[in-house]
Design goal:
The complex is a heterotrimer of chains A (about 120), B (about 575) and C (about 800). Chain A has about 120 residues and is an all-alpha fold. Chain A has three helices and no strands. In chain C, a hairpin with a 4-residue loop joins strand 1 and strand 2. Chain C is elongated. At the B-C interface, helix 2, helix 6, helix 7, helix 8 and helix 11 of B face helix 7, helix 8, helix 25, helix 26 and helix 30 of C.
């Protein structure tokens, strides 16, 4: 299963990167979301996959079963998801603002850089 | 451990932790107050500036203690470390918040309507930076970076001098999100391998993993590679905060798009915190500090220490294998396969970390050299003062990273010299507060006066605003690092640390870069002081209050140049507990 | 010392601050008043001269930055004394002269201030015992020199000359600092007095050569040695008192001082001898030749100064008692006659309005006092007995004759001196003899403030030549002792007997007269070679600046294009390269072996995500892309469910829903935009993206097979229930163990919330036109006022008086 997920992660990254390289702010943000999914899965996979054993202590025990998933990885991903969402929300509104002022989705229309 | 003991120890920990966290709490309260000001009727009655000023001043006062701590300690169950280094940088950051409040009030940006939001964001970011400076745990490192970054994205997009700022802020956010993701992955890789997120414990584990016996037998070379990749990924996150090459791209564009006020915040506070964090991470992985005292009831000490530190406290695990839990003993067999044997003492652990130090210093020195060179060359032909200062900021970040590399070279053999290197960083960061705040304050006030941020429009300004120009010259000359100003002592200590560490190549690049930087800084000086004033300039002059602010900000640069010991002694105290 | 050395230095800076005010109060006479300080200092120094001459050394030390081992330590020995006397003595004359020369100039007060600041820095430089302190004062003299050269802002030439001088000297200063740091590291001390005692140890130290080279670069730039000599003639744009003081008598001697000071520690090796002697010799000849080709008085003097500095460098490179004696004598002699001649040149300029030797003639009648001073100084420069210049030249001939490769060095010295003698006649004699010609301003004798300096300096040269025992011997001996590191005693006398040196002096004099007579021919010859000048070091300087500019511009345009996607591309390509290289060299290719435990619904889920991802990429409309993105998100959440992370999945479901709603809200009403990239660009991006994807896959595969430490969860697994009374460990971690973490998340969310809120609140400006229109208006108006909050405070600021 790890192999399958590895391939999936690769595809998510590739798709994200491809979208971010397009000349469109909309696609840029789409790409960002795909990358975030890829990254979360990456951390999840690296933490070790354990099927269907949530890190919940069964009612009749006082410690976790040996084969349960790594709770710290999950906590890490939770943090990442929440923070990722806040950044995304901000980026979306920022895009909205850019579009309103410039009437374009094309980043090249408003680039700042060294001429 | 029974419930009662646990409750007692947690209560004691919280009480102790809160005592070391008062400044941050004051920031939190101020943020809430600022948000409350959004209630429409309050907005018109209360100027949020005063809330910001009072809040940040209280935070600064509470950030003390105003005397050195005798012992470093870990707070919040080992998430943060409370030592003189923390206190130094926290004080620096909060002092900057106070100065920033005054600066924005004088410059008039943000206007009264936007001010509560801006101030709340600034304080939120400051809170994150304080956590960065005191992080003792990989999770806190990630969180601190994010807490500092997200408000910065918003700041970059909010106050705008130009329309492109939204686009620049978008770049910033995209970049930041990417860097944070990479960093998080690096963190999860390394902590996955080392089995803990508590920095000192990670170092102990790392030492066990890297001990000579393992290296000779070639055990776990895959593990080493993953560790190296993880280390590089963490460096990506740090490099982004430091605007180090190649993660600097956002910096000039954001700086040109955003107002000088925001730039001051991004270039000073952000950088200081990122440097502190870089030092923390480098030392965390490359050195084993003396064991941290945990002040709790002696009976529960071993177990509570284990609780606070998530894993075993440093020195504890190898010294007392009997204290290990049965489950750990069960795993010990698996460890033995990869050679995680405990090391006899702290000296052996420090010695075993040599490969980690070598990796860190090479990585940091490489990034520093590239960053410094790129920044200086790119600043060379700039015509916009904010863009020039943006590149200068990048270059300065390069200089400031260099002593960290020196410290890593020296840590194994000559701890006092390594401490000196880190205190060079601390000194420079302190001096940098005044240099860059001064530079951007002057740029902001001149913008209000001339309605321009082009260097060419500063021609002959000496006749119009002599005090401002003289102060600007002092700032620029100090940024070059020429005596007798604060920047000189900062740079001298940086260079001296490179000499101590025998990093000749880095020293050579740093010297060459300083020579290059002469030109672009002095060109601005020349334009302002001795080029003729254009006939077309509208009559304008610097008013009294901005002028006074500029003088007050610039004065420390001169004072620190003539009397560097004032800050240097503090920087030394700050770094005394690291090695 | 009765007056502390630190006090003496600081007094210069303090008076510098007071000078502008004083100048406003005492109109006209401020120069005389201000000169009292350097005069007092000179007397104070002179009163200690006998003690120094008898071999005493004064030192004082105050703590400064104890942690760095940097103290404010000063040391007064023969060498320092010699230069201190020059600095304060000439300084007093210059202040008086400046008052007359720039009488009525609106910025005169500032000039006084800069001059006094320079004096303080220069005193500090020669008195400092700590090398860091020395460097501080070294750069201070560069900065004050910049301020003084740029003093006359009106001319573009002055402005660029000021920058050039500062760049060259401050840049050299940086090399010096690096060199001093290395020296300090090698010798284990920052105190000169300690370093000077360990010559043998230093010579064999591996850092010796690097530090020598760097220090020499510093010294050569400051003392205008080839190939850095070009800044000195350009610096002649400065007002004449400044040229006389900084660029002849004192500041340019700082490099010489450094060489002399460090020669006990660094000198005496082949590397030292070869580099210092060669550079000095070349500079000496080049300067002398270039001096003859000029017609501007100040430029002639500037090049002859370059030549003299070359001579001093040459002598210090030779080393040995005789050469050092000659160097010390020449140092004093040169300061006296060249200072006088510079002042004369300034007086001529001031009184006649011209500095062109071809347009000045027969001025003796109109300006007899100036003429007399000029004549004496010129004769001293030409090396005619019984003036002091003769003594020092004799000594240098003797040193040259005994040097290794004596023939070459002597020939060079004689040639240079012949040319310099001719130059001396051109500057000091030519304008005063012959038929009087009309000058731009009718010539009149100068006021006392303008002739005092030259008369004093010229007559000192005469008196010291005639009566060498006037304390000069002792002082020169002490200076020589300091330079050599061993006790020497110097006895100057006019008559050495019929030696070879005397014969050479005669040759020099005769040669000088011949060259003077045929100077027209020489200048025509030189003008033919002028085109060579464009290959000279001044051109190198321009080329370096140009080259740096090109390099900087190129790299910046390449890397900082302003296009986010190119930035990303650079970062990605770099990352892929680095990580790929690491993987290829250090990792093993991991075969995808772990196909175990696959369920059909796993495969189905993954295929679903893959298809949705492709859908997101390929979607033609925005809505479709958003929908596909939503599918990706929900399916990823399902993966979390399958692998034991229900909490994460829950959050992911929630967040995904919010994300889709946000996307739809923001994008729904926006019109579609056409695809803009060419198919070539798409292909390129696809390749980059695919490489990243493959790399990430490989990376995950490696990461999953690496052996792990026991996971942290073990700890939580054991403590979660008993300690925190929770059965869901993720919640336990978040709520109990990681409270701070959660606080952080809340802060981040709040910050994003404020950002979103504030952004939405911002008024959208009227300008809704195309971006290019907006851009035009922006370029025209600098800052775009219409929609920006910043505009309001700026207007406010403008209204406030």
């Amino acid at each position: 299963m790890a192999t399958l997920l590895a391939i999936l992660i690769g595809v998510l990254y590739a798709a994200g990167v491809y979208l971010m390289l397009r000349r469109s702010l909309f696609k840029l943000i789409l790409g960002l979301v795909l990358l975030a999914h890829g990254a979360n899965l990456l951390i999840f996979t690296a933490g070790g996959l354990t099927r269907a054993q949530p890190p919940i202590i069964p009612p009749d025990a006082t410690a976790l079963p040996v084969s349960s998933a790594d709770p710290l990885t999950q906590a890490l991903i939770l943090t990442a998801i929440v923070i990722g969402f806040s950044v995304l929300a901000f980026a979306l509104v920022l895009f909205h603002r850019v579009y309103q002022t410039s009437g374009s989705d094309d980043p090249d229309e408003l680039k700042v850089g060294d001429r | 451990m029974n419930l009662y003991e646990l409750f007692n120890s947690l209560a004691a920990d919280s009480a102790r932790s809160i005592a070391g966290f008062q400044g941050e709490l004051a920031l939190c309260v101020t943020i809430v107050l600022l948000l409350l000001l959004r209630i429409p009727r309050l907005t018109s009655r209360i100027d949020s500036f005063f809330v910001m000023l009072i809040g940040s001043s209280v935070a600064l006062y509470l950030a003390g203690p105003w005397r050195p701590l005798e012992q470093p300690s870990e707070i919040f169950t080992g998430l943060l470390v409370y030592d003189n280094f923390t206190v130094y940088f926290r004080t620096l950051l909060m002092a900057f918040a106070v100065l920033f409040a005054v600066f924005t009030k004088i410059s008039g940006v943000p206007d009264r309507d936007a001010a509560p939001d801006i101030y709340a964001l600034v304080l939120g970011a400051t809170l994150g930076m304080c956590i960065m400076a005191s992080a003792n745990n990989m999770l806190m490192i990630f969180l601190g970076v994010e807490m500092a970054s997200v408000p910065s994205y918003a700041l970059a997009g909010l106050l705008k001098g130009r329309r492109q700022s939204s686009e620049a802020a978008l770049k910033y956010a995209v970049y930041g999100a990417g860097a944070a993701g990479i960093m998080l992955y690096g963190i999860s890789l390394i902590s996955g391998i080392l089995g803990t997120v508590h920095l000192p414990t990670m170092a102990v584990r790392l030492a066990e993993l890297l001990q000579p016996a393992n290296l000779e037998s070639g055990l776990g070379s895959d593990t080493h590679m993953v560790l190296a990749l993880g280390g590089m990924m963490i460096m990506v996150g740090l490099a982004f905060k430091l605007s180090a090459v190649p993660f600097h791209f956002w910096c000039p564009d954001v700086f040109e798009g955003a107002t000088a006020e925001v730039n001051a915040f991004l270039s000073v506070a952000s950088k200081a915190a990122a440097l502190a964090l870089l030092a923390r991470v480098a030392i965390g992985f490359g050195y084993i500090p003396a064991p941290v005292l945990v002040e709790t009831a002696p009976a529960a000490s071993v177990e509570t220490a284990a609780l606070y530190n998530v894993a075993d406290p440093p020195g504890e695990a190898p010294a007392a294998p009997a204290a290990r839990t049965p489950a750990e003993n069960a795993e010990a067999k698996a460890e033995a396969a990869v050679g995680f044997g405990p090391l006899p003492n702290r000296e052996a652990q420090i010695a075993a970390l040599a490969p980690a130090r070598e990796f860190i210093w090479k990585l940091v020195a490489f990034v520093a050299v590239i960053t410094c060179t790129f920044g200086n060359l790119a600043a060379y032909g700039q015509t916009n003062i904010k863009r020039l200062l943006a590149y200068s900021t990048i270059a300065q970040a390069g200089y400031m990273m260099m002593p960290v590399a020196s410290a890593m070279v020296l840590a194994g053999t000559n701890a006092p010299a390594a401490r000196d290197a880190i205190s060079a960083v601390a000194f420079y960061a302190g001096a940098y507060v005044f240099m860059n705040l001064g530079a951007f304050a002057i740029v902001a006030f001149l913008r209000n006066m001339l309605h321009s941020e082009e260097i060419a429009d500063y021609a002959g300004l000496l006749h119009r605003a002599p005090v401002t120009v003289i102060c600007f010259c002092i700032v620029l000359v100090s940024l070059i690092g020429l005596p007798p100003l604060a920047g000189f002592f900062g740079k001298y200590q940086i260079f001296a640390s490179l000499v101590d560490a025998k990093l000749w190549f880095v020293l050579f690049i740093a010297g060459l870069n300083t020579a290059i930087s002469l030109y672009y800084y002095l060109r601005v000086v020349k334009i302002m002081t001795i080029d003729p004033e254009p006939d077309t300039r509208r009559p304008a002059s610097m008013s009294f209050i901005p002028g006074t602010f500029i003088v007050l900000i610039t004065a420390p640069i001169v004072i620190l140049g003539v009397w560097p010991d004032s800050l240097n002694a503090l920087a030394r105290i700050a770094t005394g507990q690291l090695f | 010392m009765a007056v502390g050395m630190l006090t003496a230095i600081l007094s210069g800076f303090v008076l510098a601050i007071l000078a502008p005010g004083l100048n406003r109060m005492v109109r006209g006479g401020a120069g005389w008043l201000l000169a009292l300080l350097p005069l007092g200092l000179a007397i104070s120094f002179a009163s200690h001269a006998p003690l120094i001459a008898s071999g005493n050394v004064f030192s004082e030390s105050n703590p400064w930055v104890p942690a760095l081992g940097v103290d404010l330590s000063f040391r007064l020995d023969g060498l320092s004394m010699l230069l201190s006397l020059l600095i304060t003595g000439v300084g007093a004359l210059i202040l008086v002269y400046a008052g007359g020369y720039l009488a009525g100039h609106p910025q005169l007060g500032r000039l006084y201030a800069f001059l006094l600041m320079f004096m303080g820095s220069m005193l500090g430089l020669v008195l400092a015992d700590n090398i860091l302190l020395l460097f501080v004062f070294w750069e201070l003299t560069s900065i004050s020199s910049y301020l003084l050269i740029g003093f006359d802002h009106e001319r573009a030439a002055a402005r660029s000359a000021a920058l050039q001088a500062l760049l060259v000297t401050a840049g050299g200063g940086l090399a010096l600092m690096a060199g001093l740091l290395l020296l300090g590291q090698a010798g284990g001390s920052l105190e000169l007095s300690t370093l000077l005692l360990q010559a043998d140890y230093l010579h064999s130290h591996p850092l010796y050569l690097p530090s020598l080279v760097l220090i020499l670069i510093g010294a050569f730039t400051k003392s205008a040695q080839f190939p850095f000599h070009f800044w000195l003639p350009s610096a002649m744009e400065a007002p004449t008192p400044v040229s006389a003081y900084l660029h002849s008598a004192t500041m340019v001697k700082a490099g010489i001082y450094l060489l002399a000071r460090l020669s006990p520690a660094l000198g005496g090796t082949d590397a030292w001898f070869l580099s210092v002697t060669t550079v000095g010799g070349v500079t000496m000849l080049l300067g002398a030749w270039l001096a003859l080709t000029q017609s501007d008085l100040k430029r002639i003097l500037a090049y002859s100064t370059v030549s003299a500095l070359g001579t001093l460098t040459l002598l210090l490179g030779l080393g040995g008692t005789l050469a050092v004696q000659a160097a010390m004598a020449f140092l004093v002699g040169h300061a006296l006659y060249k200072g006088a001649l510079f002042l004369v040149a300034g007086t001529l300029d001031h009184q006649t309005g011209s500095r062109d030797v071809d347009r000045l003639s027969g001025l003796f009648r109109a300006m007899p006092i100036t003429a007399l001073a000029a004549g004496i100084a010129a004769l001293s420069m030409a090396g005619i007995a019984p003036l002091f210049g003769f003594l020092s030249k004799e000594l240098s001939y003797e040193a040259a004759l005994r040097a290794p490769a004596a023939a070459w060095i002597t020939a060079a010295a004689v040639t240079a001196n012949i040319l310099l003698a001719a130059a001396a006649f051109i500057v000091g004699i030519r304008p005063f003899v012959g038929k009087a010609v009309p000058t731009p301003k009718p010539a009149r004798e100068a006021p006392p403030s303008l002739w005092l300096g030259s008369v004093v300096l010229a007559s000192l040269g005469a008196v010291m030549g005639l009566w060498p025992a006037l304390g000069t011997d002792g002082l020169l001996s002490a200076a020589g002792t300091a330079v050599l590191g061993e006790t020497v005693s110097i006895h100057l006398s006019l008559w050495h007997g019929l030696t070879l040196a005397l014969a050479l002096s005669a040759v020099t004099l005769i040669g000088g007269v011949i060259v003077y007579v045929s100077r027209g021919l020489l200048r025509r010859l030189a003008s033919r070679w002028e085109s060579l000048g464009q290959f000279g070091p001044a051109r190198w300087y321009e080329l370096v600046l140009l080259g740096l500019n090109g390099l900087a511009g190129g790299q910046t345009r390449l890397l900082q294009s302003g296009y986010l996607r190119y930035y990303l591309m650079i970062v990605l390509v770099a990352t892929v390269g680095l990580a790929g290289a690491t993987l290829a060299t250090r990792g093993h290719l991991v075969k995808p072996t772990d196909w175990s435990g696959l369920h059909f619904y796993d495969v189905g889920l993954v295929v679903l995500i893959l298809m949705a991802t492709m859908g997101t990429v390929l979607a033609r409309t925005r809505l479709a892309a958003i929908a596909a993105l939503g599918v990706v998100g929900y399916s990823v959440a399902l993966v979390f469910v399958l692998f034991g992370a229900p909490d994460v999945a829950m959050t992911q479901f929630l967040i995904e829903t919010l994300t889709v709603i946000l996307f739809v809200l923001v994008f729904y009403h926006l019109p579609e935009t056409p695809a803009l990239s060419s198919s070539l660009a798409r292909g390129r991006d696809a390749v980059i993206a695919a490489t990243v994807g493959v790399l990430m896959t490989a990376f995950v595969l490696i990461a999953t097979v690496v052996q792990y430490q026991p996971p942290i969860s073990e700890y939580f697994a054991e403590h979660g229930l008993p300690d925190a009374h929770g059965r869901n460990l993720v919640n336990v971690i978040l709520v109990d163990f990681r409270g701070l973490d959660t606080l952080g998340e809340i802060t981040v969310l709040a910050a994003a919330g404020i950002g979103v809120y504030a952004l939405l609140k911002l008024r959208v400006g009227k300008q809704r036109g195309t971006a290019s229109a907006a851009r035009r208006s922006e370029l025209a108006g600098g800052v775009d006022d219409a929609s920006l909050p910043i505009a309001n405070p700026m207007r406010k600021e403008g209204d406030v008086p």
